[in-house]
Amino acid sequence: MSNAPYENTRAFALACDERDPLASFRDKFHLPKQASGDAYLYFVGHSLGLQPRTARGYVEQELKDWEMLAVEGHFKGKNPWMPYHEYLTDQLATIVGGQPGEVVAMNTLTVNLHLMMVSFYRPTPERHKILIEGTAFPSDKYAVASQAAFHGYDAAESVIQLDPRAGEDTIRAEDIEELLEREGGSIALIMLGGVNYLTGQAFDMARITELGHRHGCTVGFDLAHAAGNLILNLHDWDVDFAVWCSYKYLNGGPGCVGGAFVHGRHAESDLPRFAGWWGQDKQTRFAMPSGFTATPGAEGWQLSNPPILPLASLRASLEIFEAAGLAQLRKKSESLTGYLAFLLQETVGEHITLITPADKAQRGAQLSFRVKRDGASVYERISASGVLCDWREPDVIRVAPIPLYTSFEDVHQFVSLFGKAVKAR
């Protein structure tokens, strides 16, 4: 892919696709089809990733073992179910930048967030506050508020919402630093999204973790919009914990098993936790001891044996990630979003306001923009023209060109259709 200035022509987009070393990966996914049989322009992988073509075979293998072996599939299947979640560990660890013992596939995102806060949100009268973005996804806001209330604190006082300055859409790094300097001594937990779901802003997680620890705060992240999107180094950044879902950028399928990271510093800690039998030390799990002894590392936070069919579909996707390589994916992602931003500015710049940072280091694959007038009707028109993207009230459209399966021609075609929709108002 060229580093030369972008051009607003289909020929330029096609040339980029011809030079794209990841172009063939598009064929590894099923593209959703319109009634006409034509493929949609799919820009909503930040909500649900596409199905890998290999996912069906992975799932059907486990259905076959269930059919033929029943309970013996736990031990005698082609991929025995007993350790099945462990087949995904190394690949997940690579994606989030953790060590294998720090990562586990389990539960769903908000369940994992609550389990982590049971252990890592330990409020005291002097230090009981939780820091979160004001535009965090509602589930995260509900979770932290309920945790504060569970411990007997008024969420209105204990939950600090980090908001942009008046007239701005994203949060300045210096404002995070200033807030921590001012209130860090009262903050028990920093719980931010790695990438904000609404604006697409990617936070400097390494810097935030360093600042949080300097002020005695525990630091965790919701990586729903970061895992499989950004280059992450959770272990090296010294993040205490993180959680994520696997149905967005990780293409695991609707409602797929989520994941959690717990830094190795806490591997054998005496942190309180909610316990379940699958977190029991593997050496004694089936001896059914009356007392709980956690498996060291992130696996010690498991509650129940994992669902095999969703893990199978996720496994199919993770093998594609491994083949593509995170560095290559990130490089293409930066090119795609750069091209999208360029075309939007060239074509409809006076009709929209981009709210995702222009700096590629502060964003992932998603660009969000406000439509200045009649945004809902514009969204309806582009949807009717064969585009799948995302609308958020009152005026935001979110678009995500996913490097595994979005082409430069897709981006060019999207902006062309969007321009026609805007001008049809």
Secondary structure topology:
Blueprint: H1 10-19, E1 41-42, H2 55-69, H3 73-76, H4 89-96, E2 103-105, H5 109-120, E3 129-133, H6 138-150, H7 155-158, E4 159-162, H8 173-183, E5 187-193, H9 205-214, E6 218-222, H10 234-237, E7 241-244, E8 259-262, H11 308-324, H12 326-348, E9 352-354, E10 367-371, H13 375-384, E11 387-388, E12 390-392, E13 396-399, H14 408-423
Helix pairs in contact: 1-14, 2-11, 5-6, 12-14, 13-14
Question: What spatial order of strands do you see in the largest sheet?
Answer: 2-8-7-6-5-3-4
Largest sheet: 7 strands, mixed
Sketch the topology as an H/E string, one letter per element.
HEHHHEHEHHEHEHEHEEHHEEHEEEH
> Which band does the percent of strand residues land in?
5-15%
| Distance separating the two termini | 36 Å
Oligomer: single chain
CATH architecture of the largest domain: 3-Layer(aba) Sandwich
CATH topology-level fold name of the largest domain: Aspartate Aminotransferase, domain 2
CATH class of the largest domain: Alpha Beta
Q: Stretches where pLDDT falls below 50 for ≥5 residues?
A: none
Helix content: 25-40%
- In the residues, how many domains can be counted? 2
Please tell me about this protein's structure.
- It is a single chain.
- The protein is an alpha/beta fold.
- The protein has two domains: 10-30 and 326-423, Alpha-Beta Complex (Aspartate Aminotransferase, domain 1), CATH 3.90.1150.10; 60-322, Aspartate Aminotransferase, domain 2 (3-Layer(aba) Sandwich).
- It is built from 14 helices and 13 strands.
- The protein has helices at residues 10-19, 55-69, 73-76, 89-96, 109-120, 138-150, 155-158, 173-183, 205-214, 234-237, 308-324, 326-348, 375-384, 408-423, and strands spanning 41-42, 103-105, 129-133, 159-162, 187-193, 218-222, 241-244, 259-262, 352-354, 367-371, 387-388, 390-392, 396-399.
- A seven-stranded mixed β-sheet has the order 2-8-7-6-5-3-4, with helices on both faces. Strands 9-10-13-12 form a four-stranded antiparallel β-sheet. Strands 1-11 form a two-stranded parallel sheet.
- Helix 12 packs parallel to helix 14 (408-423).
- The protein is globular.
